[in-house]
Amino acid sequence: MLHRPYVVLDFETTGLAASDRVIEIAAVRFERGRTIEFHSLCDPGCPLPPFIRGLTGLTDADLCGAPPTTLAIRRLMAEILHDDPLLVAHNASFDLRFLNQELARAGMAPFGGPLLCTMQLSRRLFPGLPSHRLAALLDYWGIPVDRHHRALDDVRATAELLDRLVAAAHQRGIAVGG
């Protein structure tokens, strides 16, 4: 429903701090009726904290042999984000912060494209909902997800959520995403 190329992106990370690293990347690019899917586990170069192992279900063994995060980010940029499409994410400031941190570590410029946050869009369209967390919105809209806090599952569900939110915005005469 958006009229320009856009990419739905999600990261799983070792934590929330600036020193934390991306451990899983998923993105789906939508352009002229076709989709390109990207997924990579990443070796962050450090052991996973117990909380993150419990949250994601990923283990150090799962990440052993995965490309270093900087190489996976370079691939993401070359294959998916090369032309600064509209970047869509749930709680987009989190994903953009980690994207730009990893781009800096890879010696690359920050992402320069526009940003659309499905959490903010949901808050604008449905301010009365008790929660705008991804899991709550997926439940509200009846969107299934196999595994929460796994990047590819969350990105697919966020893409479906985006479709629902854009349709609701259009019904109200609100333009979204250009």
Instruction: Name the CATH architecture.
Output: 2-Layer Sandwich
Q: How many structural domains in the coordinates? A: 1
How far the N terminus sits from the C terminus, by CA atoms, comes to 10 Å
Quick one: CATH superfamily? Ribonuclease H-like superfamily/Ribonuclease H
Low-confidence stretches: none
Proportion of residues in extended strands: 15-25%
CATH class: Alpha Beta
What is the total tally of β strands?
Answer: 5
CATH T-level fold name: Nucleotidyltransferase, domain 5
DSSP helix count?
Answer: 7
Explain the overall architecture.
- By secondary structure, this protein is of the alpha/beta class.
- It has one domain: 2-Layer Sandwich (Nucleotidyltransferase, domain 5), CATH 3.30.420.10.
- The protein contains seven helices and five strands.
- Strands 3-2-1-4-5 form a five-stranded mixed β-sheet, with helices on both faces.
- Helix 3 packs across helix 4, helix 5 runs parallel beside helix 7 and helix 6 crosses helix 7.
- The mean pLDDT is 96.
